[in-house]
Design brief:
The chain folds into two domains: about 5-275, Butyryl-CoA Dehydrogenase, subunit A, domain 2, CATH 2.40.110; about 280-480 and about 505-525, Butyryl-CoA Dehydrogenase, subunit A, domain 3 (Up-down Bundle). It is about 40% helix and about 10% strand. The protein contains 17 helices and 14 strands. The protein has a six-stranded mixed beta sheet, with no helix packed on it. A four-stranded mixed beta sheet has the order 5-8-9-12. It is globular and about 75 Å long.
């Protein structure tokens, strides 16, 4: 079932406990700190539910990100679905529902990894994946632990989430997790850990899932950029695309056994992220979004040069050329990760993006993004500093002040819209958060080599007794990996390949792009509103 945006918003009114600035938020869909972003996410659901993009975004009745890919063509199809949603948020909504959807598909591709000597979560993970997909739910995840000196007020000196009691029907958990990006907008949250754990840390070695309205579960939101924005005209990005981050607090929360994925097993609790395709699927989605955001920033740069009349200057052309080169680099990493695909569990779990290219992309993005932002800043110069403070100056002009900072080829209103968009994308606190995220969301730079050298899916599968192969098309036939009653019949079947070479000019690959596409993406962001914040047209995704 593919939900509509309206059904998604209705589901958020479930009594969940969200806190902001010391006060409880009764309804995130109506609160000024969250309502616009919730509406932006609802529009994503509408694109999948009933739009010209529905066939691209869905397969066999579920969102395509939930489908376990079986071939290179499936990876391409999934990326094309990622791209539609990424463009709808102009690259600034990162943890959209398709992010964790891909992660849970990664879990389902290798369910036997969840069978250990302490707990068997294989059936649970398959059932959970199926339930999320069939109900079209938005799942968030939080995997970071607070520092050892954190005081959570529990009085026991242990801030991290752990099981404090076992019952016949499940476990009781207590503690804190960081950072729940997008969690306030989700239906479900997966609570786990991606950090290395020592054998003595078995109490913290667990992963489970919960609905957001579970008693005792709290989300403490960071400062909301949306709440502090001046409206869509003055802050066109933060007012609509603040996906938010929050602290997750479990205050003696009961978790049924069927919602436990790993329990008291250090290896499985880490390997569910690094030893299945989950992490690589996360990267596939993130890399597609990163490519899209660079397209957007490059489009803003092109519009700035046209508005200021500097477009034809050789130095400006070279600068725009460097930005287009960065866009091509970001795109190349996505396509290369798909082209270097690997079998999962000898083909029983389908295929996944190439490990080396995927991990290299994360290191590259952290280094490339600040360079791209600085390049656009140089093209903008200090023009944004000469802006009126808000759209009020256009709605209620001061006598004798004129219309504002126009140029010979651009009306004052349009020039203000563009400069305000550039300022928020490049120099606002919202922009700083996104730059920080690109640089450090997977750790500081000196951690990247360690991440790349972790025991990856191949190593874990070999220890489990499976064969890890990189057989090109034409190898052994795919087998159905989901045995028993939980078998999922909509994961797709192996597709026929014609020879051992890939057709790089077929219908599945979009090789078009460049300056015009970047400019159209930035223009689509500007076209959606007037100085009073009212929409000028029904916003869908960029065409």
């Amino acid at each position: 079932m593919i939900r509509s945006g309206r059904k998604y918003l209705d589901a958020l009114r479930d009594g969940r406990e969200v806190w902001l600035d010391g006060e409880r938020v009764e309804d995130v869909t109506g609160h000024p700190a969250f309502r616009n972003t919730a509406s932006s996410i609802a529009r994503l659901y509408d694109l999948a539910h009933d739009s010209e993009h529905s066939d691209l975004l869905t397969a066999d009745g579920v969102h395509r990100a939930y489908v376990v890919p079986r071939t290179h063509a499936d990876l391409v199809a999934r990326r094309e679905a990622y791209k539609v949603w990424a463009e709808a948020g102009f690259g600034f909504l990162g943890r959209t529902p398709d992010c964790a959807a891909g992660g849970t598909a990664g879990f389902a591709a290798l369910p036997r990894l969840f069978t250990t000597d302490t707990f068997d979560g294989a059936d649970n993970v398959l059932a959970y994946h199926r339930g999320l997909a069939e109900e079209d739910l938005y799942c968030a995840f939080t995997t970071g632990d607070p520092g050892p000196g954190t005081d959570t007020g529990t009085g026991d000196g242990d801030p991290a989430v752990r099981a404090v009691k076992e019952c016949d029907g499940g476990i009781v958990v207590r503690g804190v997790k960081t950072i729940g990006t997008g969690a306030v907008f989700a239906d479900e949250v997966i609570v786990g850990t991606t950090e290395p754990l020592a054998p003595r840390d078995a109490d913290h070695a667990l992963c489970f899932s919960l609905p957001l309205d579970t008693p005792g579960l709290k989300l403490v939101s960071r400062m909301s950029y949306e709440a502090r924005s001046g409206g869509v005209f003055d802050d066109p990005l933060s007012s609509r695309f603040d996906e938010n981050d929050s602290l997750l607090v479990c205050e003696d929360v009961f978790v049924p056994w069927e919602r436990v994925l790993t329990y008291r097993n250090v290896e499985a609790t880490a390997a569910m992220w690094w030893g299945t395709p989950a992490y690589l699927n996360f990267v596939h989605q993130a890399a597609t979004r990163f490519w899209t955001r660079l397209e957007f920033l490059t489009g803003v740069a092109i519009l700035l040069t046209r508005s200021s009349g500097t477009r034809e200057l050789p130095a400006v052309s070279r600068s725009v050329g460097r930005l287009l080169g960065m866009v091509a680099q970001a795109k190349a990493f996505v396509l290369a990760a798909e082209a270097s695909w690997e079998h999962v569990d000898g083909g029983c779990g389908g295929v996944m993006p190439g490990t080396e290219i995927s991990c290299a992309q994360r290191g590259m993005a952290g280094e490339l993004y600040p360079r791209a932002v600085q390049e656009v800043r140089r093209l903008a110069g200090g023009s944004d500093r000469r802006l009126p403070e808000s759209a009020e100056e256009l709605l209620y002009p001061v006598p004798g002040a004129g219309d504002g900072p126009g140029t010979p080829g651009t009306r004052a209103k349009d020039r203000m819209k563009l400069l305000k968009l550039a300022r928020e994308a490049l120099g606002s606190e919202f922009a700083a958060r996104h730059e920080r995220d690109e640089r450090f969301c997977h750790g500081v730079p000196y951690v990247h080599p360690a991440v790349r050298n972790r025991p990856g899916p191949a190593a874990v599968r070999n220890r489990a007794g499976g064969a890890a192969t990189r057989t090109r098309p034409g190898g052994a036939a795919m087998r159905n990996w989901a045995d028993g009653p939980a078998a999922q019949d909509w994961h797709g079947a192996a597709r026929n390949w014609h020879g051992d070479t890939q057709d790089w000019h077929g219908d599945t690959q979009d090789w078009h792009g460049g300056a015009q596409k970047c400019e159209r993406l930035a223009t689509a962001c500007l076209d959606g509103y007037d100085p009073d914040g009212a929409p000028t047209r029904t916003r869908g995704t960029f065409q």
